Amino acid sequence: MWAPWAGLCLLALLLQTGARCPARRSTMQGETGCSLLDTSVPVPKTAKHFTKLKAQGSIPPRIDKYLWLRDDARNDSAEENAYAEAVLAPTLPLQQLLLEEMLARIPQEESSVPQRQGRHWWLYSVHRAGMQYRRYCRRRIDDPQALPSEFDTMNLSQPEVVLLDQDELAAGHSFFDMAGPSFSPDEHLVAYGVDTAGSEVYTLFVRNLTSGHVLVAGSNDAYTPEFRMCAGDFVFLDNRQILFTTLTEDTHRPDKVWLFHLWSTPTKAGRTDSHRRVVRYVPRLLYQEKDEAFHLGLWRSRSDSIVYLRGSSDTTHYLYYMSTNSSGDDANFTILAPKVHEHEYMVRDGNGFLYAVIGTPEERNGQLVVVELGPNALLNATADSRGRRRPSNNSEGSSSSSSGKSAGGSDGSSSGESSSEHTGGNAASSSYWALLQPHSRTVEIVDLAVSSRWLAVLERKNGTLAATAYPLPADGKPLAVLRDGKQFAFQAPSYALEFGDQGPFSSHLLRVRYSSLTHPSSVYDINMETGNRVLKQQQEVVGYDSSQYHSRLLWASSTDGAQVPISLVYRGELVRLDGSDPLLLEAYGGYGASFDPEFSGSQLSLLDRGFVCAIAHVRGGGELGRYWYQDGKLMAKNNSFNDLAAAADFLIKAKYTSADKISAWGRSAGGLTVAATINRRANLFKASAEIGAGAPALHSVMFYVYPVDDTMSSLILAKCDCLCMQAAILDVPFVDVVTTMSGLNDPRVGFWEPAKMAAKVRELKTSNSLVLLETNMAAGHFANSGLEGRLKERAFKFAFLLQTVAPCATMANQHTELGARCRGCFAALVAAATTIALVTLVVVLRPSSRIARKWRRLGGWSQAGRQQISDNDEDEGDGGEGFDTRLYAVHMSDSQAAEAADAEAEQQRQARQRQLEQQGLSLTSYDALLGCFTMSGRLPSAELLEEICVRFILTLPATELESFERLLFSIEQAWWHYEDHVREKPENTKLKSLTLKEFTGLIFEKVPGLQPFKASLEEIYDDFNKYKRTVPVRGAILLDPDMTKCLLVRGYKKDAGWGFPRGKLSKDETDAQCAAREVLEETGLDITGLLQEQDYIDAQLGDQDTRLFIVEDVPETTHFAPHVRYEIGAFGWYHIDHLPASYDESKQVSRSGWQTAGAQLPRPHALPTGGHAGCVACRHL
Predict the structure, then answer these.
(1) Among the listed ranges 823-832, 862-871, 1134-1143, which one has the minimum average pLDDT value?
(2) What CATH class is the domain 1032-1180?
(3) What is the pLDDT of residues 946-966, one digit of tens each?
(4) Contact, 1107 vs 1100, CB < 8 A?
């Protein structure tokens, strides 16, 4: 009789405690945390305007319901922003707190490491207290004749000269970004570009540093529009001429190179609205690339003798060069490396020779060669397997591009032609050539640094970066072989290492920047002669103690066995590593870019609240070399998504977090990776956020919608028949919170693409998950500019994460009375206490009620009382409802279920045939394939079927298409999705409930690649059912500590039976892994640490091999909750002695009134054990 009073006392105690706790709002149904997100705000309604789009290639046209979101009215973006702000309004104090924390870690004034600029100056930048941007300054070098040393310091007594103040330039603009600065050889002029919209379109300015006079102000109408369409590459050819690249107006592709004489006079160019010619400053066009797959890049070499021009597509490079001694009409480019498909180049010059890393389809990680600088120097410059220079082969010609202005400014030839105009008058390749480092699949050459006496090589070996310096011959000759190298590496488990801004060409110093997840960014000067390494500067982080934080490098096995590296960091005393810690998992996986682990001061706000922060280095990135990149692009893009899912699974299994504590974050290509992974494994993450997700851009490329980056176009259209990436925007069934962020002026991913993605997710999601869309109306792809603007965005992101996956950590941090780690929530405990009190009172006052009977059967009474009341319940005649300890029923075996389904389908087909005959019609082939559809209910629409096919069928990896059996398993998953989620939506209540066979027929009819097999569907389906009956089944027998009872689960449907938790063995899964997975899915209990692989029972049930592992010591009080929907309806503990030992006995049990599915369930002690001589469980049984 103590239970009701205990519940009431607990309720009173919690109500008293709650008076001290702030108000809480529930994030969504099922969330019992302390989340402050306000979900009562009405969700914006996105209208649907149907637009038919013409597709490219063989892709059929489709209807786009959300294309109108591109409308420049932008009302929808404003509404979405208002909604996101309203939902997150309760977190504004938290956002402000996070912002203050981040700003407090940054010193009031911070300066970069000074570097020599020419012979006379130290160049550096400063961030001043209270300012948002940086100021570029310089001071004179005391002794210009002294050789550079790693011990050099800048004399602060020398007057500081301010070159550019970004805060002054940014005044009056909500966004500001600067390209450059670039300095003239005589150090008197500086060129820079200004972007005030975030569109990455820069306006060119040139300033005289001596007088302060602005020589070129591209924003002035006295200059032609080219000065306002710059790509950000500014190179002084000499002290009077400047080269710059410009962008196309539609796709913002760098396609032209211009030469401008700074002291030229304006000329007549263009017309005004009144058709009068105007006088303007006009640059001279040097080069134009008309091939939309290529964009141009321009830079000046460290030796100051060469200006390079590179054309780059996603797969191919070509190179031109120009001597800095060129001037006037002589300033033209000469071919250096022709365009050859899938050949990529990285070059550095020194002493008249060219050191080049060349990547080819056969050697993607690159070979390092040295050649004499000259026309076509890199033509056929790779080595064969014996290390000899390859003979001339068929290239795409020696021209830089297939069309456009040539190096001389005249019309270029087509891609197959070669002329002296394109080769500088010399089609012969370089005379000197040597292979310095052959290709290796495990070692990628990342970067080169060349000085007058040294060659430094940055390499990545199995993901680890290291720099090696090699001496060059003193007589100025090139290297013939690499030897006597000095290697410089670091000891962290994983880290980032890169070459910094190098000093004068004559310097023997190598500057590198090093950082890890626990080590703030540090700049070192390395003396390549002595090997001495001097720390020049380490990022100052106020209050940071690196000894409190720990980093790890882990490896997760992906679906195809690939080992995916994971870098993670956490604060030691704040995590438990028992699965209860919140975790943020980030990924990128695109364009071969490496997401190396670097220190983040702002990330401390998460780590100090008990977060684990991890990076999944998925394929598509460059963390393990160019082959890692190739394995995650185009037709292999699915590997990126599989890798992220594998990393999350591993972190959950390794107890770094759990499914309700893990969140995913990705920007740009990383947004695509996260979105697609969520679409495949929606219940894998609690929350996700994508900034500028690139997934919907595929739609724009395929259907001629709006311009996207042309390089992306060539990348996607090369395999546009593959719809793998389109699945990223289709469905998010279970993820609780999804936030998508974009920039209005983003030139890489249009702002309307994330908007369409959010609308599509809201339309198709099958849960009450929260979808937020936030569009920065004054920024582009890289979001806010300015220090505080960037930190505000991070504070927004962190507040969102804290309130969705770790609200208790937030409350504990803000309210110390809740303790260091809030392990429960006030609202949940109040509800639990109220339920206990009320239910127990009902049990006492009305013991014969249904609630009382169920309560007793759930174990809510003492042992003696339970036995007494259980005896009294025998005559209540409730038909076996509830948890009766004598009740036993079994699952229908797969073979019997299949036979029943086939019989039902045949009956329906015959009924359909009779119905048609009465109308004078006959069954079509389509009807024959699908079986019968009764008149009640309607079939899924073509659009709905297309979306299901894209998600479940068209994105399958090749391994899942090896046989019809594997394919039909995926179709079965799609069928479950249709029955369990799609038909539950209010607008789909009239959809027909289909059998698996009927659904399979629809899929075969819809997918073009399966249509030729429609006539064989009956045979294929029969073979599939036969195959299913042979798939091994693995599960577990969960025993209580007394070894007298076992746990049984009952199916979700009313006529479902009881049985042990079990399921079919998946591909590449061990017996124990399958059993643990099935138990976790059906009960929510992780038995990984309890399962002993030698303790099991084997049985052959029909054609099916069954193995049940024996798991001991599972308390009866364990709370069970399935991780899958609509599969498990109830749990119950049953006496082992009451289980039927045979199929006949189970039928007798059924005839006596117990519910059964009519199939045999093995009685543990009646079967042979395996792998051991009588384990403890078997002896007890």
Answers:
(1) 862-871
(2) alpha beta
(3) 778 877 777 676 666 778 888
(4) no
| DSSP secondary structure, 657-703, as one string | --TTTEEEEEETHHHHHHHHHHHHSGGG-SEEEEES--TTHHHHHHT
Q: How far is CA 448 from CA 379, 458, 943, in A?
A: 20, 6, 52
- Between 132 and 720, residue with greater pLDDT: 132
Q: With bands split at pLDDT 50, 70 and 90, how would you rate the model's confidence at 794?
A: confident
Kindly state the average pLDDT of the residues 226-248: 90
How far, rounded to the nearest angstrom, does the alpha carbon of residue 311 sit from its chain's CA centroid?
28
Phi, psi dihedrals of residue 399, rounded to the nearest 5°: -85, 155
pLDDT of residue 632: 92
Q: Does residue 564 have a pLDDT over 80?
A: yes
What global pTM score does this model have? 0.63
731 φψ region: left (φ > 0), alpha (ψ -120 to 50), beta (else) = beta
- Side by side, which strands form the sheet with 189-195? 177-183, 189-195, 203-208, 214-217
Q: How far apart are CA 102 and CA 795, in angstroms?
A: 8
**H or E element that contains 761:** helix 752-764
Distances (CA, A) of 532 to 148, 951, 970: 14, 56, 59
Residue 356's Cβ-count burial label (10 Å; 0-12, 13-18, 19+) is buried
Nearest CA to 955 among 795, 628, 729? 729
The answer to whether the beta carbons of residues 116 and 503 sit under 8 Å apart is yes
- Chain centre distance of CA 999: 32
How many helices, marked H, and strands, marked E, lie in the chain? 26, 49
DSSP structure string for 353-384? EEEEEEE-SS-TT-EEEEEE-STTTTTT--B-
Residue 133 near residue 167, CB atoms below 8 Å: yes
Which of 207-221, 640-654, 888-902 has the least mean pLDDT? 888-902
C-alpha closest to that of 857 among 1149, 1133, 1137, 1153: 1133
pLDDT digits (tens, 9 = 90+) for 305-359: 999 999 999 889 999 999 998 877 778 899 999 999 999 999 999 989 999 999 9
The superfamily in CATH containing domain 51-101+543-817 is: Alpha/Beta hydrolase fold, catalytic domain (3.40.50.1820)
In tens, the pLDDT along 148-186 reads 999 999 999 999 999 999 999 989 888 888 998 999 998
| CB 308, CB 298: distance < 8 Å | yes
Give the number of other Cβ atoms within 10 Å of residue 121's Cβ. Answer: 23
Residue 380 has pLDDT above 80, yes or no: yes
Would you say residue 711 has pLDDT above 90? no
- Alpha carbon distances (Å) from 1037 to 1049, 1083, 1113: 11, 12, 11
User: How far apart, in whole angstroms, are the C-alpha atoms of residue 497 and residue 464?
Assistant: 9
Please tell me the CATH superfamily of domain 924-1027, with its number: Dcp2, box A domain (1.10.10.1050)
Supply 739's token pair. Answer: 């936030």
Chain-wide mean pLDDT for the chain? 75
Cβ atoms of 502 and 479 closer than 8 Å: no
The position carrying tokens 């309700």 is 660
1077 Cα distance to chain centroid = 25
Q: Check residue 808 and give its pLDDT.
A: 61
Task: pLDDT band for 1151, please (50, 70, 90 cuts).
Answer: very low
Task: Return the axis-axis angle of helices 996-1006 and 964-980, rounded to nearest 10°.
Answer: 110
Q: Which residue ranges make up each domain of the chain?
A: 51-101+543-817, 107-165, 173-288, 442-540, 924-1027, 1032-1180
Angle, alpha carbons 491-497-502 (nearest 5°): 130
Q: How far apart are CA 197 and CA 941, in angstroms?
A: 43
Contact 765, 799 (CB under 8 A): no
Supply the pLDDT for residue 749. 52
